[in-house]
Structures are given as C-alpha cells and as structure tokens.
Amino acid sequence: MAVRIRLKRIGKNVKGRAYYRVVVLDENRSRDGKSIEELGSYDPFKASSTLKVARYEHWVSKGAQPSDTVKSLYNKAKKA
C-alpha cells in the first residue's frame, strides 16, 4: 500500500474560505476519502498551521510521500 501525506479539505465553501487537515491516506483514495491518521491542520487565510512533527517524520521514514504544500508546512513547523 502506497501512502501519501496531503491536505484534506474540511472547511465551508463560503466565499471560497477553505480549511484543511494534514492527513495520511492511501494514494488511491480521493482527497476527501477516509484517512489513516490526522497529523495537523492548515488555515491559509489565517496563515496558521499545526503539525505533529514526530508523527510526520515517522510516516516519511515508513515511505510516505508528502505533497509539496505539506513539505513546506513541515519546514515552517520545524523552524518554529
């Protein structure tokens, strides 16, 4: 099973205001499909994010492929 770390849209679609969760899921699942684990959240309008860095590193060590956006969130979380 190939695993990806990506964003899952959960916010309301009021005026395009989206809110996302950082999740681990099978790469064959849809963006909003059932996730294996939730690693954090991301709000692009508030420019705020939370990420469980230890769990992210665990999944990457197991071979999970993060999306480009999740990689940048990880780099920001690691600096903070």
User: What fraction of the residues are assigned to beta strands by DSSP?
Assistant: 25-35%
Kindly, what is the distance between the CA atoms of the first and last residues, rounded to a whole number of angstroms? 32 Å
The helix fraction, in percent, is 25-40%
Run of helices and strands = EEEEHEH
Kindly provide the radius of gyration, computed on alpha-carbon positions and rounded to a whole number of angstroms.
Answer: 12 Å
Number of domains: 1
Choose one word for the global shape. Answer: flat
The main pleated sheet reads as: 5 strands, mixed
Largest sheet, spatial ordering of strands: 4-3-2-1-5
Quick one: CATH class?
Alpha Beta
Report the count of strand segments. 5
Helix and strand content put the structural class at alpha+beta
For the record, what is the CATH homologous superfamily label?
Answer: Ribosomal protein S16
Number of helices: 2
